[in-house]
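Mods, move this if it's the wrong board.
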Amino acid sequence: MTVVDMSAFICQCFNQFGSTLNYRRWKGKEMRSSGFAFFLFASLLIVTVAGGGEIVFDYSLPLDEVRIDRFETGSVVSCPGGVVCFEEGMPNLPGVSCCFVIPQGTTVTGAELEVLSETQLEDRYNILPVRVTAISRVPGPFIYDETIYLGDDAFPSSPVISTESGNRTGFRLGSVLFTPFRYSPLTGELSVITSARVTLHYENDATVPVLRLTPAQVEGAMDVLQNIVRNPSDLPAYAPADDNPNTLWSAWVCISASANQSTLMPLVNHRASHGMSAEFVSVEWISSNYTGYDTQEKIRNYLKDAFNNHGLQYALIVGDWGNTQRISKLNVGGETLNETTDLYYSDLDGTWDADGDHQYGENTDGLDYYSDISVGRFSTNTISQIQSMVNRTVEYETISPSGAWRTSALLAGAGLWPEYGYWGSFVCDSISKRIPGPWTEYKLYENTSGHPNNQITILNQGVSYAPMQGHGFSSGVYWYYSPTNMITNSNYTQLTNWGKFPVFHSIACLAGQLSVNGCIAERLMFCTTGGAIAVCFNSNNGIGTPPAMGPSEHLEVHFSNQMFTYAVPRIGDMQAAAKDAFKAAGGMSYQNWVLQENNCLGDPATLFIIYQTGIEEGSSGPGAVPALGPAFPNPSQGSFSMTWSTPATSGFTAGLYDLSGRLVRSLGASASAGSSGTLYFDGLDESGEPLSPGCYFVRLDSESGSAVSRVVVLD
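Not the wrong board. Structure tokens:
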């Protein structure tokens, strides 16, 4: 066990984020899943009995995967998958989390960890405490909790930190957070639990709603959850019934004042003509037909009804600061969020006001933080600005120009805390690991010598993704050193990238502060000469935990993982899935704050440019266009199969494509397809070499249309 310099530790923290998980089913079938999983399951056993059940799994942490790094006057511990999980002032021992799908109508009641092997390290350490700070502020001194650091007991008293239950689109989830470390502050002794058996208990709970949803709702949720839960093979057995007996409404809805209807109808019609049932619903109609304490609660009650009973999947809320925006009163560390949280319309469990004080989103309000639908916002009531956002959305999905911009990304990383050697480039580099190899990446990184300043030129040239990581205010995202404007109200007017719209995402403080008139997130969406197709910025302060990776940075990487590793095609689904994966990854400090404050401006059903592969061209009814079933197995270690169906008289061609759109392998053709069949793939590319790990698309083309399905290939 060595002590190394802090800069190496920070880089290692980001590099390890997104390593792989190996686990073995109880009957011996080995599986491997890519993504945000970090530790070894030697076995996984799910036992369900009358009244409840348990999940038993084995965890191991090899000593050579533990790092202890020197920082200032103390040491920092890290391990694969570790997140900051204790409160400020407590020893910063990383925790790891496991999330599972559990049976309908159950709730997690507890967990225990049986230590199978534990090693006490030879050296003695001063483990630094957790430190939390807004990204826009200078970190203060480390504060030590004297009840722990001057106490006689080892910390923590139990390795199990917490358990949680939640609902994701009718699926019931249970998770356990634990730490594989024990620390005695008075002696400096640190031990590592190198192997353990963890048991998660759940019981029947009559208060848990059991939903009956539509097949489309269930399939969409399974697509997300297979990359989050540690037992994806149990998703079909524990799924909500997919035979909703109620009358179906639209899968996509736009909610706004009736005065905006005519301006929004081209977007409604665009959705309806491209294979998604869609409608406009006025705020006035909702207010007349649904009950609630205020307009926001009435809108949410409508959304709950549409989701629970009528097949809703997407909601676009159109409205400026006022009666469509829910203000969160979440208080963490003595600070109140007091800003817009559209998660209120996405997480539809409960009332968000369990204590009945009409202060929404508090810790006492019973939130589970998992999405049920995907939500986006056009944050204005001005007709010309709504028109600009409607035009850009329709054009993005219909007439966007071809070219290299579609597979280009701008990664801008400012100095976050240069005095501590902590830079935005760290999270950018972690994002970069998710971007496909053939892509062009423009990396504008700040250091003590300054920074490049050609970001506007690159944006005008065209990129499809722009994670810009810096300090922030409502007026923009900023570099640390002069000139400070990264993307701000002072330089966004220079954008001339109309048609080549990127998705923006950022850790910056307040860049999405919707309570002010024209924050930078809004201006990027209103811009008449260019701007963005979607912006995911914070309505309050982004949060860091230097020197460890903070919650705002975690959300950034989760988003890029959904965009690329798991190829989630629609931008609102990326945002919802990123938050769900982040929530499932462990209850870290200020996690709930970040989940509430990061809002998506834009239509949540917008197809990201590289996934506009033909399937979005729509259908005229069931059976009128081709269809592809999911790959099996998925993830795959190379070979897989996939069912297909076409109209009886339609032939087809099929091919396997990578994320850059390159044809990797032709999967065959048929002049007269018949009605259905199965495609088989042997795991080799056109040259006979095994596929490289990554995400791929199978596309089937016929005279009657196209169909697309995706598959993740592992090592």
